[in-house]
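Fold tokens
===========
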Amino acid sequence: MCANSEDISGSEMRTAYRVAQELLKDRLEMVDKDAYKQIKDVQGDDLIVVDGQYDFIGNVLAASGIPFRQVGSVDVETINFRSDQTVFINCPGVISSAGLAKLHEFVTGGGFLFTTDWALRNVLEPAFPGYVRYNNRRTGDEVVRVEFPSSDDPFLKLLISAQDDPQWWLESSSYPIEIIDEKRVSVMVSSKEIGKKYGASAVFVAFDHGNGKVYHMISHFYLQRSETRTQRHMKPGADYLDEKGIPAALRAKYAAMGIGSSKLSDVESAFTSTAMMNKVLFDRKKKR
């Protein structure tokens, strides 16, 4: 089953996530100043994070300096969501039937919803049936390679290049994502390894519903580890800055963040995960 809730504040990956968010902003400022402004302009009540037991989206947002409002799962029933907000639901996403109805109304009216792992069965199947579902084959605790089939996505093209070889950590008993409606569901990240072992290759998916949008990710937003499968993965984390074209004048702040203790594989994995989160924020800003 999913690992127990833990404090991730001392983990190596936390440093990688802090570096990744700064790297993302620097990269965007270099290649698309408009996208950079959209990502930078996030207000405190734009994002709502619903507590869970097994994922730590709030910790990552805090480490990245992105403001948000944190609430309990029982609060979903009574919150007056705004249609211009984004709601993140941590795994396992145990929400009451009244709360699920509220989320359905929120998305239908224009809201953006982001869920992870077991929320596939607990939130998406009952509240948004007919799009995606759990295929009833639980994963092991492992790290897999991922690919970007939606290479034409304008935001991701700014960040992810052909040189990237990102990995994704699967929590023990993660839920593979079966696509029900291939016409309405977009697969933005997939994994041939997951597809071969578990019969469903989707890693990160999205679909429009009403005036809003739903995003879902297998396993957890917070990737707790990576692997060094290649010589490139074993390189220092600072080498990833070179790959993204970060000038020497900006390197001191990354050194202060602790990039010297990070491997390239850690920074790359955190950057990939962070790119997914910021795509949601960018899409939200564009629609607003």
